[in-house]
Amino acid sequence: MMTRARGTVWHKKDKQKGIVPEGLTGLDKSASWSFSKADGWVYGHGSFALVSHRLPVLLQFKWMPNCSHEAKRMEQEVIKLVELVDTVCMDSKADDEKMFTRLKTEQGIKLLTVPRSKMDKSQARKQMIAEQMQPENRHIYKQRSITVEPMQGLVKELFELERCWMRGDKSNRWLFAAMGIAVQMAQRAAYLNGSSTWNIKDEVLGL
Q: Which of 88, 86, 41, 84 has the alpha carbon at shortest distance from 66?
């Protein structure tokens, strides 16, 4: 998830050269640029989220550089949970045959994603795509639409994260961690009480 930086935007070319134009104030110099099909180009900070498919609960919510590679971060994080995870789903950013093979052979984890079109030239990719397209795997992947995607929207809505609250990596790193813990605590309490793990706004915000 991308969150716009607080303050003004630092043009990509100027940032690469380390040039701050005259009159450009309130700049978050540690923010970075990234692109998504949903939001376009965003100058700001990113967050990494892991969500359970079995129950709609947040497992991780961490700050990350907006320009960093989400799929590589995903691989790093799921490896830490290898005893708990047998299948992981991610959008087309995880369409990487080598990563797919590493997780499968070294960790015993099945990676489900959306293969890019016209990218089935090698035998290894053809085999990966064939596995991805199995009906059972497509059924599991579709669960992202009712687990992962809504969870990011929930966190964004709870904390009004269209724009970062503060400037700088250090400030946002601890703030995003605190947000994740607050949601996890509220969702655990809701689950134990047999309540919805989505309707937690009052608990999270102490209302």
A: 41
H or E segment and range at residue 151: helix 148-158
Q: Could you give the CA distance from residue 136 to residue 118 in angstroms, rounded to a whole number? A: 23
Residue 20 token pair:
């701050």
pLDDT digits (tens, 9 = 90+) for 45-100: 999 999 998 888 999 999 999 999 999 999 999 999 999 999 999 999 999 999 99
Residue 37, CA distances (Å) to 2, 106, 118, 119, 179 in order: 12, 32, 19, 19, 25
DSSP conformation letters of 23-91: T--SB-TT-EEEEETTTEEEEEEEEEEEE-SSSS-EEEEEEEETTS-HHHHHHHHHHTTTTT-SEEE--
CA pair distance 171, 165, nearest whole angstrom: 9
CA gap 9, 77 in Å, rounded: 30
Residues in the chain: 207
Q: Say if pTM beats, i.e. exceeds, 0.90.
A: no
Quote the CA–CA distance of 63 and 113 in Å, as a whole number: 23
Instruction: Look at residue 207 and tell me whether its pLDDT is greater than 90.
Output: no
The answer to whether the beta carbons of residues 156 and 1 sit under 8 Å apart is yes
Q: How far apart are CA 71 and CA 52, in angstroms?
A: 17
pLDDT digits (tens, 9 = 90+) for 164-199: 999 999 999 999 999 999 999 999 999 999 999 999
Q: Is the pLDDT of residue 29 over 90?
A: yes
